[in-house]
Design a protein that fits this description.
By secondary structure, this protein is of the alpha+beta class. Helix content is 32%, strand content 27%. The protein has helices at residues 22-34, 72-91, 139-143, 146-163, 187-194, 210-228, 244-250, 271-284, 289-295, 364-385, 398-401, 441-445, 465-476, 485-491; strands spanning 3-13, 49-56, 59-66, 95-108, 121-127, 130-135, 170-175, 197-199, 206-208, 234-236, 241-243, 262-263, 301-303, 319-320, 327-331, 335-337, 352-362, 390-395, 415-423, 428-439, 449-450, 457-464. The strands form five sheets. Strands 7, 10, 15, 16, 17, 18, 19, 20 and 22 form a nine-stranded mixed sheet that branches. The protein has a six-stranded antiparallel sheet with strand order 2-3-1-4-6-5, with helices on one face. A three-stranded antiparallel sheet has the order 11-13-12.
Length: 502
C-alpha cells in the first residue's frame, strides 16, 4: 500500500529564541532535509521532508511530510538531538517536550473499511480509494511507537477485509472414497434422546453419561496407541487459566476477546468485604450480580481457549540442547472453553470441550517431516479404525495470514491442514481435526532458542473428542452392531441401566 504521513507539531522550548538564531535553525533544517531525514530510506525512495517551519516565542513549529520510509514522527524525533545541540550550546535553551497539533496518515486501498474503529484515531475518512486517519496522539505516544502500530493495524484491517474467510484459502489435498450410510439422523439429538448425553447448566456444555464416556475413552485409547505412543510423545499438564502475558506473546491478544471466558479474581478474600453479598443471598436466594461486579477485580486473563500457548512459559527464555530435538509432548488434563455466540449446535460446536493437544518443536526440517508422520497416523485412524468418509485440506487461517505466515513455498511448510468429515444427515462437512506447522511464531514470541543457533519451529494439533464423536456417530449411528471392529473392541460392552429415572 502507498502510505503518506503528514505531521504538524511544536517543540516546546525552555525560553524564547532570539532573532539571530533563526538563520542557524534554517540552515540546520535544510541540511536535515538533505541528509538526516533521508538516512535509512532504500535507494530510490524518499525520506521525510520538512515543508514548513517557524518560531513563535518558546515554540518551534514544524510541518513534516513523508512516505513509508523515515516516517514523519521518526523524523521529528531525529531532529531533537541536533536542535538541542544548536539551541543549548549557544543560547542555553532546552527542549521541554513535543506538542502534536495535527497528524494524518493516508493509505491507498480498494476496500472501504467497515466499522473502522482504531484506538488513538479521532476520525477515519475514505475517498477516491484513499483512507485517511486523523490521529489523536501526544509526544509520549510518538516515543512509544503508537503511530507505527496504528499503521500496522490499518494494514491488517485492510488485508482482513480482503481475506474473505477460510473458504477462500481452502485447497483439497486428499479425500477418502464415498461410503454408504444406514444412519442419517442428527447424532446429538439421537444421543440426547437415548440419555447418553445431557445438557449441562452452562451454555454450550454437555454432561456425558457412562455409555458416551466409554466411547470417548475408546477414542483416547486409539490416539494413545496409534499416534502418541507410536511417535514417542510424552505427557505434560498445561495450565487452563491463561494470563494476558501469555496471549500477548502467542499473538492471541490481537483478537481473542469475543471468544474467551474471562477470569476475574476477587478484590480481597476478607469475609467482611463479602458479607453484603453473602447476606443478600441468604435473604433473597438470588446472587446479587450487580453487587458482585463491584467486588471482583479486572480480568487477569481467561479460561483455556487454545491449549498450547500456556505450555510455552515452561521453556520461555531458555536455550534448549540440540540433542533434545525434536521435542514431542501432549496435554489432556482439562477442558477448553470458547464462547461460540450463536453458533452453538449439539456436540459439534460447544463452549466447553475436551481435547488432546499434541505439540512438537525442533528444526524446520524436523517439523515438516513430523507433520508428515502425523498425517499418516491420522490417515490410518480415520480410514482403518474409525472408518470415516473424510477429506484433508490445506487452509491458511487468519491468525497466520495477519503475520505474513501464508506458506513459505508450494511444499506447504507453514500453515494448517483441516480434516473434514461428511455429516450424512445434512450433507455438510464438519472440521473435526486440524494439524498446524506454526513456523517460528511461538519460539520467537516466547524467546526460545536452539543451542546450535539454528531456527526453532513448532507445530500443534488439537484432537477434539466432541468433534470426533460428532463425525463418528453421524456416519455410524449409536447402535454398536454398526460400529467398526476397531472401535467396538476398545469400547467393549456398554454400561447398562446405570441410571433409571422414574
Amino acid at each position: 500500500m502507498s502510505i503518506t504521513f503528514n505531521l504538524k507539531a511544536n517543540f516546546r522550548l525552555s525560553g524564547a529564541v532570539p532573532k539571530e538564531c533563526e538563520s542557524e535553525l534554517g540552515a540546520l533544517l535544510e541540511d536535515a532535509n538533505r541528509n538526516l531525514l533521508r538516512k535509512g530510506a532504500p535507494q530510490g525512495q524518499k525520506g521525510a521532508e520538512i515543508v514548513d517551519w517557524r518560531l513563535d516565542e518558546d515554540r518551534l513549529y514544524l510541518e513534516i511530510h513523508s512516505g513509508r520510509y523515515v516516517r514523519a514522527h521518526d523524523a521529528l524525533l531525529r531532529l531533537r538531538k541536533p536542535l538541542s545541540g544548536t539551541l543549548g550550546k549557544k543560547y542555553h535553551i532546552g527542549i521541554r517536550g513535543i506538542e502534536v497539533l495535527d497528524f494524518e496518515i493516508s493509505s491507498e486501498t480498494e476496500h472501504e473499511l467497515t466499522n473502522p474503529r482504531i484506538p488513538f484515531v479521532r476520525s477515519i475518512t475514505y475517498e477516491d480509494g484513499t483512507v485517511t486517519l486523523d490521529l489523536e496522539v501526544d509526544g509520549s505516544d510518538l516515543e512509544n511507537r503508537v503511530p507505527d502500530r496504528i499503521m500496522n493495524l490499518l494494514e491488517e484491517k485492510v488485508e482482513q477485509s480482503t481475506y474473505g474467510g477460510k473458504g477462500e484459502h481452502w485447497e483439497l489435498m486428499w479425500e477418502s472414497p464415498h461410503r454408504e450410510y444406514r444412519f442419517r439422523e442428527d447424532p446429538s439429538k439421537t444421543l440426547e434422546g437415548l440419555g447418553w448425553i445431557r445438557r449441562g447448566s452452562s451454555r454450550g456444555q454437555w454432561i456425558y453419561g457412562p455409555e458416551m464416556t466409554r466411547v470417548l475413552r475408546a477414542f483416547v485409547s486409539i490416539v494413545e496407541r496409534d499416534l502418541l505412543n507410536k511417535l514417542g510423545y510424552n505427557e505434560m499438564i498445561f495450565p487452563k487459566l491463561v494470563t494476558w502475558d501469555v496471549w500477548k506473546r502467542s499473538g492471541h491478544a490481537k483478537g481473542v476477546y469475543p471468544e474467551i471466558y474471562f477470569v476475574c479474581p476477587p478484590k480481597t478474600r476478607d469475609p467482611d468485604f463479602w458479607e453484603e453479598v453473602i447476606d443478600h443471598y441468604k435473604v433473597t436466594n438470588e446472587i446479587p450480580l450487580e453487587l458482585l461486579k463491584e467486588k471482583i477485580d479486572y480480568p487477569i486473563g481467561g479460561m483455556c481457549y487454545a491449549q498450547c500457548p500456556p505450555f510455552w512459559v515452561f521453556v520461555q527464555g531458555e536455550t534448549i540442547a540440540d540433542d533434545c530435538m525434536p521435542v514431542k509432548v501432549f496435554d489432556r488434563s482439562g477442558t477448553s472453553h470458547r464462547y461460540e455466540s450463536g453458533g452453538l449446535h449439539g456436540m459439534e460446536r460447544v463452549d466447553e470441550f475436551h481435547r488432546i493437544e499434541v505439540l512438537w518443536m525442533g528444526t524446520p526440517e524436523q517439523m515438516v517431516e513430523h507433520s508428515k508422520e502425523l498425517q499418516e497416523c491420522y490417515k490410518h485412524i480415520f480410514n482403518d479404525v474409525l472408518e470415516l468418509e473424510w477429506r484433508q485440506a490445506w487452509v491458511t487461517p487468519w491468525f497466520m495470514a495477519q503475520e505474513g505466515m501464508t506458506g513459505l513455498d508450494e511444499r506447504k511448510t507453514v500453515g494448517t491442514i483441516d480434516y473434514e468429515a461428511l455429516l450424512p444427515y445434512n450433507e455438510s462437512w464438519l472440521e473435526f481435526q486440524n494439524l498446524s506447522v506454526n513456523g517460528d511464531k511461538y519460539p520467537r514470541g516466547f524467546n526460545v532458542k536452539l543451542q546450535s543457533g539454528e531456527d526453532l519451529w513448532s507445530g500443534c494439533s488439537g484432537i477434539g473428542l466432541e468433534r470426533w464423536a460428532s463425525a463418528f456417530f453421524a456416519q455410524h449411528g449409536p447402535n454398536p452392531d454398526d460400529w467398526p471392529n476397531g472401535v467396538l473392541e476398545l469400547v467393549g460392552e456398554l454400561p447398562r441401566d446405570v441410571f433409571k429415572f422414574l
